[in-house]
Prior knowledge:
Elements: E1 21-28, H1 34-44, E2 49-53, E3 66-67, E4 74-77, E5 83-88, E6 105-112, H2 130-133, H3 141-157, E7 160-162, H4 166-169, H5 171-177, E8 184-185, E9 195-199, H6 205-213, E10 220-221, H7 248-267, E11 274-280, E12 286-294, H8 299-302, E13 311-319, H9 323-326, H10 333-357, E14 360-363, E15 368-369
Parallel strand pairs: 2-3
Antiparallel strand pairs: 1-6, 1-7, 2-4, 4-5, 5-6, 7-8, 9-13, 9-14, 10-11, 11-12, 12-13, 14-15
Amino acid sequence: xxxxxxxxxxxxxxxxxxxxxxxxxxxxxxxxxxxxxxxxxxxxxxxxxxxxxxxxxxxxxxxxxxxxxxxxxxxxxxxxxxxxxxxxxxxxxxxxxxxxxxxxxxxxxxxxxxxxxxxxxxxxxxxxxxxxxxxxxxxxxxxxxxxxxxxxxxxxxxxxxxxxxxxxxxxxxxxxxxxxxxxxxxxxxxxxxxxxxxxxxxxxxxxxxxxxxxxxxxxxxxxxxxxxxxxxxxxxxxxxxxxxxxxxxxxxxxxxxxxxxxxxxxxxxxxxxxxxxxxxxxxxxxxxxxxxxxxxxxxxxxxxxxxxxxxxxxxxxxxxxxxxxxxxxxxxxxxxxxxxxxxxxxxxxxxxxxxxxxxxxxxxxxxxxxxxxxx
Length: 375
């Protein structure tokens, strides 16, 4: 059977923005296809749809859009004001994009330019490198949401993002506000460790403990608390604050009523709506599994029939030995090694939970994962 030649991608144009807009690039390697970018957009922006469908996506839903003409890029709407144009070839129309050599496709992202007026604080836990990408002021509102999605998408797809590029090649934009930083970020996929399993199945603490014992023998239930000892002795005789003039008898009566309320609550049946399990990794920190019900779900999960009224959330989280170091863009090698070991355990724990309860698995960015991706 004859194979069709993929359409030749157009080169990135010099100008796509207006005066109130910002321009960023998403660069992806050759193992990424266009609809993967669409799915990641659907995971974050509820209004995502194609206004212009790329020619290699003829089966895309077209409620209001159209198929791109020859040499025309697609236009993926994220919100009313933010759009993804592409794919483009990894080359500019008469200029160098300055992207990594493994880039196969480029997407041009246009969004409102919304920045804080002050420069970002130095060394402020900037794991994603935003401070050096926006030295004059970090994005906020919609631009921040788009920029953070671009970082997450680049991390998931093994690609890169280049930020604030509107003035690099567009003379009109450069005249308005300068060339822009144009920093290239290639987010480390290993920096995103935490996973979440969403399901309609509730595991009681003992069942969850048994499931996770097959992953790590030192898992413990974090449900042990201290016995309630009651209010401090003599509290009913003390004023609430200096100069308080409440009648002493009334104060004692109020405290007695509070004691009765506390005793009734302690004697009532315990309704468990959440619990946790922990695994002590020594020098590598802790892995914690937090279990509770939640009504705030990722976009692609809440559309599922079983999640219409909420879902059970199993968050598998790494607590690093040094929180400050873990939030640095380039952490020390010892932290990277600890993170790699913890990430392996987090993946195995999430896979074991998913095997027990089904549902969906999401990464830190709320992008869905297949169970085989954790092996």
